[in-house]
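In this section we walk through a basic example: taking a raw amino acid sequence and producing a predicted 3D structure, encoded as discrete structure tokens. The instruction is simple. Fold the sequence below.
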Amino acid sequence: MQQKDSSNMQTELALNLVGTPDGQTAQAILNKCVHCGFCTATCPTYQLLGDELDGPRGRIYLIKQIAEGKPATEKTRLHLDRCLTCRNCESTCPSGVDYGHLIDIGRKWAEEQTKERPFAERLLRKILAKGLTNKYLFDNSMRIGRLLRPLMPSIIKGKIPKGRHPGTRPTAGKQTSKMLILEGCVQPGMLPNINNATLRVMHHLGVDLLSSPKAGCCGALKYHLNEQEDGLNDMRRNIDAWWPYITGEAPACQGQKVEVILMNASGCGVTVKEYGHMLRDDPQYAEKAKTISALCKDLIEVLPNYTNQLKKLLGPLNKKLVYHPPCTLQHGQKIKGVLENFLGELGIQTHLCKDSHLCCGSAGTYSILQPELSKKLKEQKLNNLLNTVKDCGAEHIVSANIGCITHLQNNQTPVEHWIELIDAALEKK
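The resulting token sequence is shown next.
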């Protein structure tokens, strides 16, 4: 009798999942897991709660049970809800388990199999899904919020960052090099200077950053709130909005095809890079989605190509920063060490804090839906960041994602996007 291999988690799909895209994807991912437990050592929620089911390995077991036909319970859903989707576990997994895609499938199954959430919870999730992705509604809400900010309790004040004055936007059409930028759903309203600073820096470097007025939310927000079809529709809308720029037919392109779809929010970047995967079964959009994902680059993947030019423009900057690498950049996009090296070339010493690999607790809408866990993670991260600021004598904390930047605002050290500091240095020259 042949001995069964116990080195991995062979999954026998329930009959209703056999041959389905989600079933096949989940089965392939589950079968890679060797249940070694390395992932638990770097999981923020496991570190806080100490419950196996609030770590990646435990959640994988729960999803495996659903895949094999055991109905999900509300407890199952709760453990999956508590996941930050930080994907730290992917960085430490020796078997290459694609946990990020698996947790999305598991949440979808759990949502389908459990009873409806309480009304207040459903209402909150609906407000987040619709309100944050509606640019007109969100921008105006943020303007009103800033006016009333002094009168608001501290917990709400923290969600309304002061930010910098956005300054001017350079006139597009004068540069020969063309790139696209996704300005995002919340970033223009919350911290508009990030986008304008990016446009100004690239303009200095001879690049026109074009923006399609028909593009909007990358799709991540709705998708991760289990409104997955609506999230996919956001992705399709962006593909349609960007395609004339990809082909060079948009008037703003002046006959040139854009070279890159540039992302200055790593949360959007990791999502757009996965359009090809998300829409792989869509006959109308699959090929276009792959093209979009291939063109998508984070800002830190592009700007090092202009290092020598920036050196000439800036001279040595002689600054010290503390850098918080977003999970979506270091674990989702697997980009580590690049920003530190790039800034070092410009004369900027960049320091990482203790446990820099751990999530700050922002994680999209997580800070609103899981406020207690998020608060604990924020406190831990801020304590480590501010200690590092003190130890190295830095004047700024920088990051690369709007969620992290707003979440980590404090009264001691400003938290900004790193591109804002380069922009400010260029403006002084």
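Looking at the output, two observations stand out. The radius of gyration is 22 Å. The first strand starts at residue 177 and ends at 181. In the next section we compare this with other chains.
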